[in-house]
Backbone:
């Protein structure tokens, strides 16, 4: 038994130390409304949740960020709506980390990506201000 506890501590201790040394996220701000404005502090995570109907081929894409105010955290994640039937809508979740003070806009476009030249079905713009 004592040997098992020592093995367990040997495995868990490095994970705990790594977690403690990770930068802390001060807040997670969730935006679900286009046209919204968000005020963040450096280190905050901004979460954008946009409804899409991927089963019909529609999805949201975002304009590439050109400044260092926000950086994307990974690729968008797809979450099914819990109250929808099969073939219904999903939620696309975009995450951004506030890096430095400044003002920027996040622009998203809803379309079928393979239909070039068809224009966008919807657009979504979110104003973001980051303070130190």
Residues:
């Amino acid at each position: 038994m004592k040997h098992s506890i020592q093995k367990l501590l040997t495995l868990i201790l490095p994970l705990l130390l790594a977690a403690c040394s990770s930068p802390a996220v001060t807040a997670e701000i969730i935006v679900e409304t286009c046209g919204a404005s968000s005020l963040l502090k450096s280190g905050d995570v901004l979460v954008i949740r946009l409804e899409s109907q991927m089963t019909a081929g529609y999805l949201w894409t975002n304009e590439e960020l050109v400044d260092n105010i926000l950086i994307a955290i990974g690729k968008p994640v797809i979450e099914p709506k819990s109250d929808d039937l099969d073939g219904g809508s999903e939620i696309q979740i975009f995450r951004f980390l506030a890096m430095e003070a400044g003002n920027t806009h996040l622009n998203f476009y809803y379309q079928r990506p393979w239909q070039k030249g068809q224009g966008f079905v919807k657009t979504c713009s979110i104003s973001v201000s980051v303070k130190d």
Q: What stands out?
A: Confidence is low (pLDDT under 50) at residues 8-24.
